[in-house]
Amino acid sequence: AQTVTQSQPEMSVQEAETVTLSCTYDTSENNYYLFWYKQPPSRQMILVIRQEAYKQQNATENRFSVNFQKAAKSFSLKISDSQLGDTAMYFCLNAGNMLTFGGGTRLMVKP
Amino acid sequence: DTGVSQDPRHKITKRGQNVTFRCDPISEHNRLYWYRQTLGQGPEFLTYFQNEAQLEKSRLLSDRFSAERPKGSFSTLEIQRTEQGDSAMYLCASSRGVGLSSYEQYFGPGTRLTVT
Fold first, then answer.
1. Is A103 on the interface with B (CB under 8 A)?
2. SS3 state of residue B72
3. Do A45 and B44 touch (CB under 8 A)?
4. CB-closest option in B45, B106, B109 to A99
5. How far apart are CA B87 and CA A110, in angstroms?
6. B89 and which of A86, B19, B50, B110 could share a cystine (Cβ 3.0–4.6 Å)?
7. In angstroms, rounded to a whole number, what is the distance separating the alpha carbons of residues A54 and A87?
8. Radius of gyration in angstroms for the set of CA atoms belonging to chain A, rounded to a whole number
9. What is the pLDDT of residues A49-81, one digit of tens each?
10. Cα–Cα nearest to A71, from A51, A61, A56, A82
11. Regarding beta strands A105-110 and A88-95, do their DSSP bridges make them parallel or antiparallel, or are they unpaired?
12. Vertex B106 angle, CA A65 and A34, to 5°
């Protein structure tokens, strides 16, 4: 069975600071993709960043970057210069033959 | 440019009734996904289509659940003989069907089902 674990149910960060959300996964597949999605309160899910498992280079999208450690099956998300609009639930997704989301981390950015 | 739309946005039904939800994907997307999300949890995969073909079904999708995408455009998800445990948000997503892009999903706003 494929699992995705987000060990931090809730986190908070001061505006303009940096925060890291953790995600670990377990899969028997060799080819898969990893994603972080954001779900703002009462709004739909939005793709934040993507990573192909066969690429060693960590993905970066503006203020968002990942630390992908394939051997450790870890895929953490770093948000730099946090903004109030980053307040949301964040979900990690392992996509291959199966599609498995983690349980989510609720991030609150404080002014 | 319209995104993924779902109808209805909210549905309240009595236990034992049948319900049907509709999803309209982004027009050029050939993959369509259905998920179920309960409060405070991550989405659980139910099924997905590549054009009109249903390629994968989760074991979560009991015999009471059925999904169709007859012409490879919109999709419907039907739940027969609803139970209180079916109360959840039902999410639809679509994507292009090639490589990494096939998993870059665009989500709709969801249909919230309440079974009383």
1. yes
2. coil
3. no
4. B45
5. 32
6. B110
7. 31
8. 13
9. 999 988 889 999 999 999 999 999 999 999 999
10. A56
11. antiparallel
12. 40
